[in-house]
C-alpha cells in the first residue's frame, strides 16, 4: 500500500510538472495558438514517459488552454473573437465586484503592496521590459483579488485566470498600452485607498473593458470569426 501511495504521488507530481511546462511554453509564446503539442518531444525533454504528458494535456483541456482533435492529438486552443469578448465581459463583471470588496476590506499593507507593484510596472515600462510588466500585471490582479477576502470569488478568478492569460499578454505589448494600463491601476488604488467602493468597482470594470479594447486592437486579425 505504501509503495502504491508513493507511486501515485510521484505520478501526480510529474503531471503537475508537465502542466507547468506546457503553460510556460504557451504563455511565453514558445507555443502559438493552434500549435500541436508534441507529446514525445516534451516527454523526452523532461526525461519522463509519455503518460504524465498526456494526463497533463487532458487537464489543460479542462482548464481551457488546450483542445483535442480526433486522431490528431492536443493543440493550443485557438480563440474565437466571441471567446475573447465573452471572457473579458465575464472578467469585467467579476472584477467590478472585486473592486467593491477591496475598497471595503483592504488593509493599509495591502494597499501599499498594490502601490509597490504599480511602481515596479512603471520601471518595467520605462525599461521596455514587456515580459516583466506582464508578470507584475498578473501579480497585481492576483493581489487585488486576494485582498477581497472572498474565497469563492478567488476560486472563480483562478478558474478564469489560465484561460484569460492566453490573450492578456497580447494586450500589453507596447509602451503606450503598458502606460495606459498602469494609469488605470493607479486610479483603482486611489479609490481603494479612500474606501470608495462605488468608484473602485467602476474603475476596476473600466480597466478590464479597456484591456479588451487593447487586445482586440492588437490581435483581432489572429482570432477566428
Report the structural category: mainly alpha
Rg estimate, integer Å: 19 Å
Number of strands: 2
| Biggest beta sheet summary | 2 strands, antiparallel
Identify the notable features of this structure and list them briefly.
mainly alpha, disordered N terminus, 4% strand, globular, two-stranded antiparallel sheet, 225 residues, 2 strands, Arc Repressor Mutant, subunit A, Four Helix Bundle (Hemerythrin (Met), subunit A)
Task: Tell me about this structure.
The protein has 225 residues and is mainly α. It folds into 2 domains: 2-76, Winged helix-like DNA-binding domain superfamily/Winged helix DNA-binding domain (Arc Repressor Mutant, subunit A), CATH 1.10.10; 81-222, Four Helix Bundle (Hemerythrin (Met), subunit A), CATH 1.20.120.530. The chain is 75% helix and 4% strand. It is built from 9 helices and 2 strands. The chain has helices at 2-27, 39-46, 50-62, 81-105, 108-127, 130-146, 151-168, 175-193, 197-219; strands at residues 66-69, 73-76. It has a two-stranded antiparallel sheet. α4 crosses α7. It is globular and about 55 Å long. It starts with a helix and ends in a 6-residue tail after the last helix.
Amino acid at each position: 500500500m505504501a509503495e502504491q501511495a508513493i507511486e501515485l504521488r510521484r505520478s501526480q507530481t510529474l503531471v503537475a510538472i508537465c502542466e507547468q511546462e506546457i503553460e510556460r511554453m504557451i504563455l511565453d509564446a514558445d507555443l502559438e495558438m493552434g500549435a500541436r503539442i508534441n507529446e514525445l518531444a516534451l516527454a523526452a525533454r523532461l526525461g519522463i514517459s509519455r503518460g504524465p504528458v498526456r494526463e497533463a494535456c487532458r487537464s489543460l483541456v479542462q482548464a481551457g488552454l488546450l483542445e483535442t482533435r480526433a486522431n490528431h492529438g492536443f493543440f493550443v486552443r485557438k480563440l474565437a473573437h466571441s471567446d475573447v469578448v465573452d471572457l473579458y465581459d465575464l472578467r469585467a463583471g467579476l472584477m467590478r465586484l472585486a473592486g467593491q470588496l477591496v475598497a471595503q476590506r483592504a488593509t493599509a499593507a495591502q494597499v501599499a503592496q498594490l502601490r509597490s507593484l504599480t511602481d515596479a510596472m512603471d520601471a518595467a515600462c520605462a525599461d521596455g521590459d514587456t515580459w516583466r510588466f506582464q508578470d507584475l500585471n498578473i501579480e497585481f490582479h492576483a493581489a487585488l483579488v486576494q485582498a477581497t477576502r472572498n474565497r469563492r470569488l478567488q476560486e472563480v478568478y483562478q478558474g478564469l485566470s489560465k484561460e484569460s492569460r492566453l490573450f492578456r499578454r497580447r494586450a500589453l505589448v507596447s509602451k503606450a498600452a503598458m502606460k495606459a494600463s498602469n494609469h488605470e491601476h493607479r486610479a483603482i488604488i486611489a479609490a481603494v485607498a479612500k474606501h470608495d467602493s462605488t468608484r473602485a468597482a467602476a474603475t476596476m470594470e473600466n480597466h478590464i473593458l479597456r484591456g479588451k479594447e487593447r487586445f482586440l486592437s492588437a490581435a483581432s486579425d489572429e482570432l477566428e470569426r
